[in-house]
């Protein structure tokens, strides 16, 4: 029974807040800007379609009062077509943005993992924990150390 406590006394444990560290990495801001830039054209196209839909809705409202049955049907078809187009574009946009974000987060995690391993070896940690920890003593928290390392400071 005394052996586990002897091992515990010798075990060096660290903890870090992964979200805080990743958000402080220079690559984080650069990646966010790149994703915004890469998808700006698509976002603009979606906003333009939204404007077109508002115009078609106003036209349909006018036609319902003063238009012929044929004009109303034609306006409804145009509106429905634009609504389908924007739904498709919106879904594709969301999927592509999420894929780009997932790739970006993966790259950040790889760099962070490498840095955590370096610190663990350099400083003799036996265990370094992250997500899912409800409490960590400031004595074992290495979040700021990781931020300095990944930020190049």
Description:
- The chain has 153 residues and is mostly helical.
- The chain has one domain (2-151): Protein Binding, DinI Protein, Chain A.
- Helices cover 78% and strands 4% of the residues.
- It has 6 helices and 2 strands, in the order αβααααβα.
- It has helices spanning 2-10, 18-24, 26-38, 40-66, 69-123, 143-151; strands at residues 13-15, 127-129.
- The protein has a two-stranded parallel sheet with strand order 1-2.
- Helix 2 runs parallel beside helix 6 (143-151), helix 3 runs antiparallel to helix 5 and helix 4 (40-66) runs antiparallel to helix 5 (69-123).
- The model is unreliable at 1-7 (pLDDT under 50).
Average predicted local confidence, pLDDT: 89
Estimate the helix proportion, in percent: over 70%
Overall 3D shape: rod-shaped
The main β sheet shows up as:
2 strands, parallel
Task: Work out the count of structural domains.
Answer: 1
Ends: how far apart?
44 Å
Structural class: mainly alpha
- Kindly state the number of beta strands: 2
- Gyration radius (Cα, Å) is 27 Å
Question: What is the succession of H and E elements?
Answer: HEHHHHEH
CATH-assigned homologous superfamily:
Skp domain
Strand content: under 5%
Predict the CATH topology.
Answer: Protein Binding, DinI Protein, Chain A
Tell me the CATH architecture: 2-Layer Sandwich
Look at the structure and give the CATH class. Answer: Alpha Beta
- Order of strands across the widest beta sheet? 1-2
Unreliable stretches (pLDDT < 50, length at least 5) are 1-7
Total helical elements = 6
């Amino acid at each position: 029974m005394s052996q586990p406590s002897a091992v515990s006394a010798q075990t060096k444990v660290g903890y870090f807040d992964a979200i805080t560290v990743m958000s402080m990495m220079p690559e984080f801001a650069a990646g966010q800007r790149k994703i915004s830039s890469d998808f700006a054209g698509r976002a603009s196209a979606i906003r333009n379609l939204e404007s077109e839909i508002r115009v078609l809705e106003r036209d349909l409202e006018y036609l319902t009062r003063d238009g012929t049955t044929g004009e109303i049907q034609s306006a409804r078809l145009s509106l429905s077509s634009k609504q389908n187009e924007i739904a498709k574009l919106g879904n594709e946009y969301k999927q592509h943005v999420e894929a780009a974000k997932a790739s970006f987060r993966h790259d950040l995690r790889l760099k962070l993992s490498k840095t955590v391993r370096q610190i663990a070896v350099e400083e003799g940690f036996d265990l370094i924990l992250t997500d899912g920890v409800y409490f960590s003593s400031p004595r074992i928290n290495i979040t700021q150390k990781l931020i300095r390392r990944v930020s190049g400071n």
